[in-house]
Amino acid sequence: MPVIPKILVFAGSIRTGAFSGRTADVAQKALALEGAEVTRLSLADYPLPIMDEDLEKENGIPDNAMKLARQIAAHDAVLIASPEYNGSIPPLLKNTIDWVSRARHDNGRVLRPLAGKPAGLCSSSAGHFAGIRAANHLRAVLVRCQMEVVSPECSVPEGASAFDEAGNFRDGRLQKSMEVLCHTLTQAARQASMRIGA
Ligand SMILES: Cc1cc2nc3c(=O)[nH]c(=O)nc-3n(C[C@H](O)[C@H](O)[C@H](O)COP(=O)(O)O)c2cc1C
To answer: Where is the NADPH-dependent FMN reductase-like domain (predicted)?
Structure first.
């Protein structure tokens, strides 16, 4: 029986019509075609306070961070589609990662959802540079969290004109780069799921 890897997909923006959300839609389809079981979530459903160690000390990890941590732990890989703010990671996404990185226990059991987990990165922007600076920063942060970030990326420039009416990329080269990313990530997720199952 072929292994069906589980991959979690989300965008780093909750803006209506976000280019990163539309990029995540394209990724979701490409991962499904690779044979992955895809879960799509929106960070709008996991609102979090700004990371503050006093808050953490007083109240522990917020429920929504724990829910996200459990979601990540329940999947074999994660794909994140990020926008770029001022050449870097948007605060919504960085804050989410920071909180989840603090989730180390769940009901007395060790929970390290990010360590060793394969991750794939997409970026997008309104301009020519396709959010590649944000992708570079995001890669560094996720590696710091011990995630196994795969090498291929898919970076989408000119978000306002990048998608057709059906939500697909207009540029065939972009579609190809998404397919390479999703193929590589699905393979990594398959290997991870076999390690977990072993
Ligand atoms: C605070 C802020 C900073 C931004 N900085 C950049 C930037 O550094 N590079 C860039 O290409 N676009 C930048 N933009 C424009 C975004 O690419 C654009 O708003 C995009 O639509 C945001 O991503 P989303 O569509 O996924 O929400 C910035 C937008 C905001 C709101």
So the answer is: 5-158
Show the ligand 1 pocket: residues with CB < 6 angstroms.
13, 15, 18-20, 83-87, 124-127, 129, 131, 159
Measured between alpha carbons, how far is residue 9 from residues 54, 107, 120, 127, 182 in Å? 31, 26, 9, 23, 11
Nearest ligand 1 atom to the CA of 15 is 27
Mutate to test the pocket of ligand 1, among 125, 129, 154 (most ligand atoms within 8 A of CB): 125
**pTM score > 0.85 for this model?**
yes
Query: Domain extents for the chain?
Result: 6-197
What is the rounded distance in angstroms from the CA atom of residue 46 to the CA atom of residue 18?
A: 17
What is the number of alpha carbons within 13 Å of residue 2 lying toward its C-beta? 10
- 3-state DSSP percent of the chain in helix, strand and coil, to 5: 45, 20, 35
- At 110-127, the pLDDT tens digits run 999 999 999 999 999 999
Residue identified by tokens 């590589």 is 184
User: What is the tens place of the pLDDT at every residue in 8-18?
Assistant: 999 999 999 99
Query: What is the C-alpha to C-alpha distance for residues 97 and 40, in angstroms, rounded to an integer?
Result: 17
Class of domain 6-197 (CATH, top level): alpha beta
Helix or strand or coil: residue 18? Answer: coil
Residue 149: CB atoms within 10 A of its CB come to 22
